[in-house]
């Protein structure tokens, strides 16, 4: 009889312990998620903690630990952001559900990769089984800015089943090409400001070459960045010519062949040199 | 010696012994009873203590929720928070950001001798294995430790990119690992959800780029199993480059059409999804819908 009562008490103690554990985690999560300290406030705290460190020795160790931990985390993060090109500007999460082995959190993430900004919302489900934590993403929604990169927009809207990993890897390679194109355009614009013009700016997808003295003859180099459903990015360049009628009648064949010749030149000498060769046509006529 | 006296003495002694044993027994029982009672009181006190703790926590959580409903997600009172609390909050925030990097596929941390990268893999929304690469960066970049499986051409990829372009190295390696994990996932899903249609064993190599198995469609009439050979020629892709389906010699000629349709399906869709669409289409081997 007595042993039965003991067992009942022991069972209740066990279940109470688990309840307490769950509640504490819930409380901590909620505290973390509902609080926000600005960078200024954090800097102030770091400074005053440093002053405390120099002052008394009590609590010295844990304060120094905190600072060391903070610094190491910040170094790791800035290293990763520099390496991958992905910068996170804002992260907020809200725990929607926490039961036993299962946790569901809603994330709002904003950031940029090179000059492409994104805003993501998704739910992360984490399950604990036998020391392993499995994770799955659902309800992924992506907003890109600037819009108007039709390929990227199509890719983003076709992202089904919450493939966050594919999005980031594709974004990373797309952004690399995006940045490369921007830098190349900038380079040519700065080197030959009178010949090169960018009607759609540095982030547009074409560049115009024209003779500053005699207009009428223009070369347009279109540089598109294609992204297929799997997220593979490929640059596609093409040449368009605008030629005055008289010249066209005379040099029809040469003009018609120009785009093909440009494409083969790309394969042989690469993008920068190919564009440089075209620019030189106008330079020699200056 | 008086025999009678001895007997009497023995009897008394025995009686005394018996009384002693009884007394000892009673004392032990009393002790046990006391111990039990003590234990019971202790347990009861512990239960009360934990109940109180739990109720206090519950009240705290309820208050939090009430506050959140009142003013949607704004800051706490900074004047109340100690400097330590502020920093602890920031630390947790940074840790959360590092965790998000894990979700992007490439994360890592700096070490004393270099850097340790973690490549995570996922198939659609489910995260699967993650692999680490411990690199030394003192003079030239070297791979110190890693958990990449031996059948992934790590050395080849490293030779090509590691020294010159670490970002490309990680990207190519990530492609290989994700594709491998994706192929493995498809084969696992097939075995798990369509085991009744697979005849015999599903044969696969460790890289999961060669799959051979027999399957048939559930049908009332006699079944003619198809023999499939899938080759994934591109190690960075999780769809096959070559699909060969053959039927048994005694199968009717109309099946070749079905085989061709299936070939096309396997080439364009993940394996488990292809099977799913086959089952839901309700195709039977004799071609009748």
From TrEMBL, chain B:
Keywords, ordered alphabetically: Centromere, Chromosome, Nucleus
InterPro entries xrefs: CENP-O
Family as reported in the entry's similarity comment: Belongs to the CENP-O/MCM21 family.
Origin: domain of life: Eukaryota
Protein name (Swiss-Prot/TrEMBL): Centromere protein O
Organism encoding this protein: Melopsittacus undulatus (Budgerigar)
Keyword Nucleus recorded: yes
GO cellular component terms given for this protein: Mis6-Sim4 complex; nucleus
Compartments, as annotated in UniProt: Chromosome, Centromere; Nucleus
